[in-house]
Amino acid sequence: GNSLFYIILALLCTSCEDAFDENESEGPSQYFEGLVEGTRFEGAKEDCDRLSFFYFPEAVSDLAPGYLEMGATDCLSDSKLTLTFQGVEPGFTGTSSLADLNFAESVRPVFRTQDGVVFNRFLNGTFSVNQFSGSNKKQHGIFSGSFELTLVDQNKTDTLHLTNWTFSFTIPRRLE
Questions:
Q1: Which of 176, 140, 117 is nearest to 24 (CA)?
Q2: pLDDT tens sequence across 79-116
Q3: Cα–Cα separations (whole angstroms), residue 103 to 30, 39, 161, 175
Q4: How far apart are CA 40 and CA 6, in angstroms?
Q5: Coil, strand or helix at 20
Q6: What residues contact 118, with CB distance under 8 A and at least 6 apart?
Q7: pTM for the whole thing?
Q8: Among positive and negative, which fits the CA dihedral 41, 94, 110, 133?
Q9: What is the CA radius of gyration of the chain?
Q10: What residues have CB less than 8 Å from 56, skipping those under 6 apart?
Q11: Helices and strands, number each (H, E), in the chain
C-alpha cells in the first residue's frame, strides 16, 4: 500500500519539475553574483530573487537618457550592491576601465553591508559587457558581462574588494 503512494508521489513531483523546466525556458536566467572580500554574494537563488535592473535609453521623468541601474541584495547577508550608470550607449560590448569609461558617461557604486557601513567611493576596477541587446520577436534582450571593483567607504578608512562578479539581466524591449 505504501509503495503505491510513493510511486504516485514520485510521478507527481516529476511532472511538476517538467512544468517548472518549461516555465524556466520562457526567458534567460538572470543573475548578479560574485565575491565580496572572498565571500559569496548571490542576489538570486531558489526561493530568493532580490535582483533589480532598469535601463532607459531615452529620458524618462527626471532621468537623463541612457540611465542604467543594476543591483541586488544578497540572499543570505542582506548586504546590497547597486551600480548606477549615466549616459549608457545601447549595444556596447567590450571591456572598460571604470576610471575611464567608454560606454557610459559615469558610474556610481554603492555597497551597503548588513551592519550599515556604506562603500560608495570608487577606487578602481574593470567592467566587461558580453551582450547588450534589446528584445525582438524571436528572443529576449540581454545585458550580461562581468566586473571587478575596489571601493572605499564613505569615511575613507576601509576598502572593499569585489571580485569574480558576473551578471545577466533581461531587457524586455527593443533598443533602436
A1: 140
A2: 999 999 999 988 889 999 988 888 899 999 999 998 89
A3: 22, 29, 23, 15
A4: 37
A5: helix
A6: 110, 111, 112, 153, 154
A7: 0.80
A8: negative
A9: 20
A10: 63, 65, 66, 67, 68
A11: 1, 12
